Every structure is written in C-alpha cells, then in structure tokens.
Amino acid sequence: MKRRDLLFIGGRVVVSTVAANAIGHDSVFGQEAPGASRELLEQRVADVLQAYDAQGNHRTGTSVDDASAEWLAEQARRHGAKVSLESFPLNRVDPQSCYLRVGDRRIDSVPVFDAGFTGAEGIRGKLGPLGSDAEIALVESEAAKISDPGIEQRDQVLKARRSQHKGVVVLTRGVRPGLHLLNAADFLKPSGPPMLQISSSESDWLRKMAAARTEATLVVYAKRTEAHASNVVAKIAGTNPVLGPLVLMAPRSAWWQCVTEQGSRLACWLEAVRVLAANRPARDCIFIALSGHELGLLGIEPFIRQRPELVKGAKAWIFFGSGIGVPRQPNLVHASDEALEQWISSALGKEGLSVNARVAHDARARAEVGPVQQGGGRFVTLACDSDVYHSPADRWPAAVDVALLGRYANAFANGALQLASAS
Which of these three, 180, 208, 225, is where a domain ends? Predict the structure, then answer.
C-alpha cells in the first residue's frame, strides 16, 4: 500500500500520526541542505497539507485544535527547534441546535459566534428584509477580499447587529456560492440579535420567502464551555544573542479544514524552521503558531503579554498570510518600511515570483500583525485571495498548488535565513 493511501484510513488520530511520521522521512533535525531537490521540497509541503487536512475542523479550543498543536510542535522539534505549548483560556461556543425552518423546509447551519443566541425553542415570526417590521431579518455578507480586510462584516451585517430585529439570517457570500463563515471579531464582547449563517446557494429561495413575509422559526441555540487553546512557540538559538531576534508568525486555527487559509501558512512556517535550524543563524529565531485566529485573534494577546519587549525589539516580524499557494491568485504585500518591502521582493524574485500588489507602509495592518504595528514593531506580510476562503471546500488537494506553495515556502525560508544571519 502506498504511504499516501495510509493518510486516509484508520481514524483521525492515526491519520495525524502517520502523516507526522512521514514528514520527517527526508529531513531529521535539519540535516538536509537548503538547496535540496524541488521534489523533496514539494513532498514536504504536500505532507504538511495532507496531515493538516486529515485532522478535521480546526476550530479553536476543540479536540482537533489540541491534537493539531501537538502535531505541529512535534514537527518543529524534529527539525531541531526548542518547542513549547503556551495555553490560554476561552469560553468555547458549542452549537447545539441551529437552524432556520420555513414551512416544511429546515436548513441546519452555523451561528455567528460573536452575536446573541436563542434558547432551545428559538424565535418565531415573519422573515423579511433588513429594516422591515419582520421579526427575522434576511441579510447578505460581502465576499472577503485581501485588499479590504473585514469587508464581509460591513454594510448589511453591521447594520443587522445594531437593528431591532429579534433574529437575523445571514446569507454568506463568497466568490463561489456556498457557506463562507464570518470570523468572530468581537468574540469577547458579543453583541446584537441571534444570527445564523446560511449558504448563499439558498439566496433566491430565501429572498422570495422574505419578500412574501413568510412565517419562519429561527433557532440559534448554543452553549459556552470553559476550555483552553494553545499557541505553539518554537525557538532556534542564534550565535549572537545580543542581536534582536527574528519572529515568524502564522495563525493555525480557523473554520473547517482550512488547507489554503492556514495549512499553507504552516507549510511555510515549518520550512523556515527546517532551514534556519540547519544553518544556525546569528539571531535568535522565534516561531509562533497562533490559535484563536477566527475568534477575535485571541492567541496574539497572551503571547505578546508574556514578552512585551519583543514587539519593538525584534529585527522584524514575518507574518505568513492566508491563501499562499492558491493557483491563479495574485499576492498582496504589506511591509512596515521600504527595507522589508525590498527584502520580500528580493526573496520572491529568487524563486521566480514577484510582488503583485503593495499596501502603503502606514496602512492598517491585517489580522495578528495589528498589535505589532500598534506597538511600533517592524513587519512584513504576504497574502493571496482564495475562492474557498472560510468554506468547507478549502480542502486538500484541490484548493492548493503544491509546486507554487513550495516556491513561496523556499523564498520565505531562505529569505528569513538571510535576515537572521545579518548583523
């Protein structure tokens, strides 16, 4: 039986273990040279993506999230890094019964995690447009764009949060029809009426029901459970600890399997661990893989709180953005200064890649880079759009181009080595 076949049998725990062992088959403790063959690089990338996809839904604070943290920590250890798990608490949302019933149709789906919830009995009333006298409003989110972070929660969704409706149905829009979940930016301070996210493939029918003010029942029943999630922190000691460290950061939790959103980042993250550990750079290199990404970026605050001097003290923060390696998608780079923008342009160029679009240095930074920018730290990040962003369709192998992701991973790893080796 082929090794790839083994990845899809025997249960999720076994799948993760098998894939984890496979990753180390050609590089143990960084002994492989940075100029290894393209085939081995692509195999390492594919192994990471396969293992990550097979683990399941990577929602923060769940058993999958916990197992994934252990798996990632073990991969970093295999490459020679010193690794720890840093735990932080959260009140996890556990959906119980979440659906919209209109006539004899019931649509089960996912709540908005930073809005209100109903009791088990739900809400009954007319379904109608936002701003109408209907008890339950029908609204649409916007399709996510890397050039406009957070756009999916503006306009109708934002107005619905502030409305007097007793409940809200959110038709989630993406580039493709489907269920594209909203991140819970205000997870620690939920607000607004209960909201249920429903696939945009139901749009035409639900618009007709709303126009007719059809009676409906909305149930958004969930419980909160005290839980913990973990950031994976790895360190490669440099030869000159006086120099400011290099920080390499990637979120690792999200909705669904999220192969291109998070798996692609982790493939780049691990390749950088491997290359830097094998070459003993001058600077300390600190790697952080954050949980809590989809829930208000929960993981970054406890990480920085334990080491506030790192924000400004680091040589640079490299943030692996989402969608790296998605086929036929341009990239977008945001650097805090010209020097780091030139650095990433040069690193990509060595792999035959280019910067497709740039954000102004002083523009508001996206995601977990925000606190670094606010604290005066230097940073650079690259992200790409994806047609399956926050969708169940973000799966291995269809959503990602392994060869392209391998080139990005190599560019980041060797570029990071150059930064970490400079005085």
Answer: 225
Q: Cα(184)–Cα(150) distance, rounded to whole angstroms?
A: 11
Which stretches within 143-191 are classed as H helix?
Answer: 156-161
Kindly give the residue spans of alpha helices, DSSP state H, lying in 9-166.
12-23, 38-55, 63-78, 156-161
DSSP string, 75-95: HHHHTT-EEEEEEEEEEEEEE
Provide the CATH number for the domain around residue 102. Answer: 3.50.30.30
Quick one: 133 and 215 in the same domain?
A: yes
Q: Does one domain contain both 213 and 267? A: no
| Residue 279 C-beta-side C-alpha neighbours within 13 Å | 23
Q: For the chain, how many structural domains are there in total?
A: 2
Cis peptide before 397 (omega within 30 of 0): yes
Q: For 246, how many CA atoms within 13 A lie in the half-sphere containing its CB?
A: 29
**With contact defined as beta carbons under 8 Å apart, do 145 and 151 qualify?**
yes
| 70-91 confidence digits (pLDDT tens) | 999 999 999 999 999 999 999 9
**Containing structural domain, residue 241:** 3-90+227-421
Q: How far apart are CA 309 and CA 131, in angstroms?
A: 48
Q: How far is the C-alpha of 327 from the C-alpha of 398, rounded, in Å?
A: 10
| Whole-Å CA distances, 20 to 74, 78, 137, 194, 315 | 8, 10, 46, 40, 32
pTM, to two decimals: 0.91
CA–CA dist 413, 263 (Å, integer): 16
pLDDT in tens, 113-123: 999 999 999 99
